[in-house]
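New to this. Please check both lines:
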Amino acid sequence: MRRRPVGGVLPDHMEKATSRNQNSRICFLASLSAFFWFLLLYFHFVVLGGSGNVDQSRKLQPGPINHESTPVHATDTLQMPSPPRNVDVRQVQVPPKHSDVHQVRSLEKNYPFMRAFRTAENKSDPCGGRYIYVHDLPSRFNEDMLKECRSLSLWTNMCKFTTNAGLGPPLENVEGVFSDTGWYATNQFAVDVIFSNRMKQYDCLTKDSSIAAAIFVPFYAGFDIARYLWGYNISMRDAASLDLVDWLMKRPEWGIMNGRDHFLVAGRITWDFRRLSEEESDWGNKLLFLPAAKNMSMLVVESSPWNANDFGIPYPTYFHPAKDADVFIWQDRMRRLERKWLFSFAGAPRPDNPKSIRGQIIDQCKRSKVGKLLECDFGESKCHSPSSIMQMFQSSLFCLQPQGDSYTRRSAFDSMLAGCIPVFFHPGSAYTQYTWHLPKDYTKYSVFIPEDDIRKRNVSIEERLSQIPPEQVKIMRDEVIGLIPRLVYADPRSKLETLKDAFDVSVQAIIDKVTKLRKDIIEGHTDKNFIEENSWKYALLDEGQREVGPHEWDPFFSKPKDGSGDSSDSSAEAAKNSWKIEQRQHS
């Protein structure tokens, strides 16, 4: 017979069961409470905090690339992601890495161009950081000029030179000097239309200017001024430039960076756009002196050493390859050629210019048994024959390239296309001009003989060039031939597969320039010590350098000691001989 518990005390086994039940209730309540707090925290930090980031990551995905010939891109609906609302930059405990400084600062200040700046960070987008927006200009700024092509030059019927997308009529290869295809009688002032047509084939065009790395203005500036250089007053010469600037400044795209992300092309020398006064007798228009235009970048075949808003790009040659193979075949042919002349020169003397060394160069060519001279004049001349010119260059180891009516010559690019090593006598003829397209170390691909050495007759060109060892000549020639792709403009109606031509190099350089400017703005960098008069020096600086000092070429670019006028006076005066340049494209 079992005993009843005394005094209400439970037996051992009953007491243990009750204790287990109480512990289970406590654990259940604790778990329920923890689960509740977990859900609350999850909802707050993940659902609410993460939804904004998810939306933003979706908005940053660009649309497909459009390859149409007009500026079309399926990115019109992209929106710039705003900084997370609940994040206080001051509460960030881990200091940002150096590479992320601009990201943190962008949270502090949202610049108008930040959306474009961010596209470069999207590694899945092949066009990230490379988009170009093209202004849809009224036709009076471009296409209407082509319809009135007979008015584009007083001396030349430009109608035939604007055919074939600006390449001009095809050249016949009767003497076997050229390739069978890709060669055209291209006018040296046709870059306006060639560049614009190449832009229509650019991979990364967009209709959305807010994601553009740069903005292109398809104004035919060179064709415009060519119509009015002779016999027109300054009001007529300036009209289209003033009209263009007025049109651009009314566009919303202009206000993003006040035009500093805009660029345009002119196939003429810079002095045609730098009239120094309001005198009717002064030369050219004042496009590059307009305040708004000073913010834009202008690509010209010859830039000013003393100004920061223009940049040199190559003159067009006769060769416009349609595919990579065209270039490779030509390069191989230039490497195999036998070159019987040590040096050659194609050009005319400048008796009306006391500073010209052309007379001395011509005399040395005539006296030399290893030099070839192709004299040019105003009448019928082999200098006007692309075949004769290219044949001489292909037969020469070195090609002499003194100044013409201005610093530069188209002939320099024709000679390099022929695999001929250029010999320059002034740094403004190439070294400070085409820094995007030519190596900074000019000794790799050229020879430099200062003009004064020729004027004083203390240097024999033949002796100087003969001292270069044959193995060094071969290395230099290989370097020149290797540069050919980036010195020619590909056929705008086709597309090179892997090679980058002069157009590609120029566009990438502009994108790099605008990107660097945007980054400097974000990081608070300013060029307080920038001296525009020394612009030519800044182009020669190595990556990361910002300061310039004395340079060995200072004497070539010094300003007049009496301070009378701009240092471009002499070159602006020489530009008045542009009619000679047009008649003697190689002189």
